[in-house]
Design brief:
The complex is a heterodimer of chains A (about 325) and B (about 250).
Chain A: E1 2-7, E2 9-10, E3 13-14, H1 16-28, E4 32-37, H2 42-46, E5 55-59, H3 69-82, E6 85-91, H4 96-107, E7 110-115, E8 126-131, E9 136-142, E10 147-151, E11 167-169, E12 182-188, E13 200-204, H5 215-224, E14 227-230, H6 232-236, E15 257-261, H7 267-273, E16 278-283, E17 296-299, H8 302-316
Chain B: E1 2-6, E2 9-11, E3 19-20, E4 25-26, E5 33-35, H1 37-52, E6 57-64, H2 69-78, E7 82-87, H3 93-107, E8 111-115, H4 126-134, E9 138-148, E10 151-158, E11 161-168, E12 171-175, H5 187-193, E13 198-201, E14 210-216, E15 225-227, H6 232-241
Parallel strand pairs in B: 1-6, 1-8, 6-7, 7-13, 8-12, 9-12
Antiparallel strand pairs in B: 2-5, 3-4, 9-10, 10-11
Helix pairs in contact in B: 2-5, 3-4
The chains are: A alpha/beta (about 325), B alpha/beta (about 250).
Chain lengths: ~325, ~250
């Protein structure tokens, strides 16, 4: 028996959430095989060994350079058979989650997404998942021999436990049906820190008073190597793109540090940030409800506090 | 064209979540239930497509007990033609998806829409499972959907951007904003919803391979530490030495 981990890449590098998936699988104990699809840097694949993979498969077929859900499903189902894997571990994402759904049906596996912790195995195989948009958890027993586990960010810590491994090419057979959904084009922010992956997030709300004032937040984000986010009204008004909207109906983030500037803290926004480890709130309204959910708070004018904070951070480096 | 919109009946986004029975049951006391916000976007887009294409019908489906009927009636008031309620607690994704697939097989829909995820269990997999069970493609999360003859062009949100895809009908889509503007029922809609057909069917048994053991609430948050606006250096020091996050 082995554990298969599907690792996702962006711009040739393995995503951090996928390294966490490898670490999670490693902690489960069985030999870990990682599989990457499409174009990925050779060095990045070899380095998966450091995070706990004993074996790395690479399906480099160019048709897999884009994340086609059904094609990826077919490859992973076959790889589970070939590797005699009972468990597939992957990271929740716009690709990973739908792939997990389809693989689970094709293999007759018990399925859990949004998993936040390693399983308890004293009686059965019980995982903890985040529900009610971070407001609660559910402990769920996965009863079938085969299991598909999709992880929420920070379910395991990616750390170096081994050394580089050799990468084995993995040949795939794909059908036309695998490409029923045809990807025409994509728009992707490049070179920036992606919001769902970021360790630090700097977010702005209506208190920023307009798209033209985002420069001070971007400067703060750059200093912290952080991603930028925003509240729903901000993306609704078109000040920031939709993929930066953090909240109940937007991106749910789980960074080490979330800095909220000029966001009052509506419960729908809190639902998107309640998995953050530390929260800093900067708001000129001392009664803003966000302060109740914060670890550190500053009552003050964003246009005064934020540039000073950026300077202080630069000086502390 | 026949469109199926699957809706969830979930606590309002402002609800405080509590459990009873030794943390094994959701406590509905004082909770307002709504159509899942993502499902509401799917419904609104379905109604727009119906309005633009004569002869199109929109059916809503909910897997739930009789308690969910006011939520279903609201979807009818917004403009769906008829409704199906599968009479069961929606216990897990495979169970719900199986009920949707069984109904869809019996009717034959051109388009099956739902929200990207329910806001109670947040699994985000029902559209994918329905697609797999019906042998159809599925796309999620969809932020734009245009029907062009027997094909559709969609925009899907991906991490840090968008992807534009094309797919032939029939298919399944998990929807999110800004696919359409939420619709508010008008008086005429509310009146006509009372007499629109709402069929109740019994569920198919499913061995879903998962079993809920217990719910858990996150530990309470400690008190906030306030820092003076003219002392940002203290914040930097706390982040560095106390929180150790920078």
């Amino acid at each position: 028996m082995s554990i298969l981990v599907f690792v996702e890449s962006a711009e040739g590098q393995i995503k951090k959430t996928s390294l966490e998936a490898v670490a999670y699988a490693h902690a489960l104990g069985s030999p870990v095989t990682a599989i990457a699809l499409g174009a990925v840097d050779q060095g990045a694949l070899e380095a998966l060994g450091k995070y706990g993979a004993q074996k790395v498969l690479h399906a480099s077929d160019a048709r897999l350079n884009e994340g086609v859900i059904q094609a990826y499903t077919s490859v992973l189902v076959k790889a589970m058979q070939d590797e005699n894997a009972d468990i597939l571990v992957l990271a929740n994402s716009s690709l990973g989650t739908p792939v997990a759904a389809r693989v689970a049906i094709k293999t007759g596996a018990s399925l859990a997404t949004n998993v936040t912790d390693l399983p308890e195995t004293s009686s059965g195989f019980v995982v903890k998942r985040s529900i009610y948009t971070g407001k609660a958890f559910a402990k769920v027993e996965l009863k079938n021999q085969k299991k598909v586990i999709a992880l929420k960010k920070n379910a395991a810590e990616a750390k170096e436990v081994g050394s580089n491994v050799t990468v084995t090419p993995y040949a795939v057979t794909l059908s036309d049906a695998d490409f029923a959904v045809k990807i025409l084009s994509s728009e992707k922010a490049t070179g920036e820190v992606l919001l769902p992956e970021a360790n630090i997030v700097v977010s702005g709300g209506r208190g920023m008073k307009g798209a033209e004032h985002w420069g001070i937040l971007e400067e703060l984000a750059k200093t912290l190597h952080a991603a930028t986010g925003c509240s729903k009204p901000v993306s609704d008004m078109g000040w920031r793109p939709h993929h930066e909207h953090v909240g109940q109906t937007g991106v749910k983030v789980a960074p080490q540090l979330y800095i909220a500037v000029g966001i009052s803290g509506a419960i729908q926004h809190l639902a998107g940030v309640n998995s953050s480890k530390y929260i800093v709130v900067i708001n000129k309204d001392a009664d803003a409800p966000f302060f109740k959910a914060a670890d550190y708070g500053i009552v003050g004018d964003a246009f005064d506090v934020v540039p000073k904070l950026t300077e202080a951070l630069k000086a502390a480096k | 064209m026949k469109i199926l919109v699957c809706i969830t009946h979930v606590p309002d986004t402002t609800s405080k979540i509590n459990f009873t029975d030794n943390n094994t049951k959701f406590d509905p006391t004082g909770v307002q239930f709504i159509i899942g916000p993502y499902d509401d976007y799917a419904l609104a887009r379905a109604i727009e497509i119906k309005e633009a294409n004569a002869g199109t019908t929109v059916t809503v489906l909910n897997v739930g007990t009789a308690d969910t009927e006011p939520t279903i009636r609201k979807a009818l008031a917004i403009g769906a033609d008829d409704a199906v309620r599968v009479n069961a607690e929606p216990t897990d994704s495979l169970f719900v998806a199986t009920q949707i697939a069984e109904h869809a097989k019996s009717v034959g829909y051109d388009l099956i829409l739902m929200g990207r995820e329910s806001i109670d269990y947040n699994s985000g997999v029902v559209h994918g499972i329905v697609g797999e069970l019906l042998g159809m493609p599925s796309v999620s999360p969809v932020m734009k959907l245009d029907i062009e003859g027997t094909k559709a062009k969609l925009a899907r949100e991906i991490e840090g951007g968008k992807e534009y895809v094309e797919v032939s009908l029939p298919f399944v889509a998990g929807c999110q904003e800004p696919i359409a503007e939420w619709k508010i029922p008008n008086m005429r809609g509310i009146m006509s919803a009372r007499t629109k057909p709402l069929k109740v069917v019994e569920p198919k048994a499913v061995d879903s391979g998962v079993k809920l053991q217990q719910f858990e609430l996150p530990p309470p948050k400690g008190a906030v530490k306030m820092i003076a606006a003219d002392n940002v250096a203290e914040l930097v020091s706390l982040l560095k030495n106390e929180a150790k996050v920078i």
